[in-house]
Amino acid sequence: MITDNRVVNLPLEVPIIDVHSFHAFSQAIILTRKDKSLPWIVTNYIHIFGVPHFDKGNFIHLATSSHFHSLPYTYVSKLHTDQLRSWFTDSIELFVECLNKQQYLAIALDEFYIPGMHAYLKYHLVHHVLVHGYDWEQRLFRIAGFFGDPPVFTTNRTLSFELFQEALAHAGPVTQRASQTLEIIQFPYQALNTPIFEFDIKLIIRSLEEHLLSKPVTERNPKRIDFWFGLRAYDLLIQFLELERDSDKPIIHMKALQTLVNHKKLMIERMKYLFANYYMTDDRFITMAEQVLRKTMIVHQLCVKQRIVQDPRNIARAIHGIEELKAYEKDFLEQLLDHLENAN
Length: 344
Known about the structure:
It is built from 10 helices and 10 strands. It is of the alpha+beta class. Strands 1, 4, 5, 6, 7, 8 and 9 form a 7-stranded antiparallel beta sheet that branches. A 3-stranded antiparallel beta sheet has the order 3-2-10, with helices on one face. α8 runs antiparallel to α9 and α9 (284-308) runs antiparallel to α10. The N and C termini lie far apart (57 Å).
């Protein structure tokens, strides 16, 4: 086997959205070139929606696609894991060759064989990792994924070639289509036919208004028509909290709250971008966005507290916090939209 290098470690940045694997992987990659990615990022991740009657508790989601092929200046190749196993006698060779070409690789592996992950040597769990480097002398890959307890997105962790092969061999069968695929990501990618993302402040204004008015955004996925969009998602969160109070047991998955926290963090970055690029002339909206995040964090912390000590007063405070958050965010968005429409 011929390798161009002995050590490769492709760059990754800290993602703004870090609660879901593919959002975290995508942003960690494209934020390495903020000049190409930030205009797209702040234009997206505005819409959220809630899924009523969802029995897993993770019912609040970002409407923006997390698929790699949706990203700007990105080329993605896909290979089914069955093909990977049958076509390549040595998958390590394929991964090393791709990394030598500055390509990232996303694949689902069995966490039972990955040191540092919560499932390591405890139970079998197939989950995605992002391979972003290797060391040929030490015979290991460098990977990003969710490590620790609770799991936190982390980069630059090591996985030996031997354990990688074990984790790949035991990563199946799985029902999710995305978990059956190796994705090879080239970024930044530029060709004659590569679409160039053009920033449009009018699109941001329209999207913010849709979020404020809880307008269903179903152009890409008509099946979402029954979902609760925008600020209305807070009403659904209150319903779930009331259900949790009456059931006297945890129902809400913390990912739902963490998604809201991520959504507010990105709103702050959006305000900073608009101000820095003169689409917004009043920096008080940055301060207001930071206050929205603080109010969201209070609700998040109350829900965490409820999981430690179940007390109906925690839920009552959380519901009151959500009502305050919704009212403040509504006022923030109304003032922001008036300002943006007058300034642009």
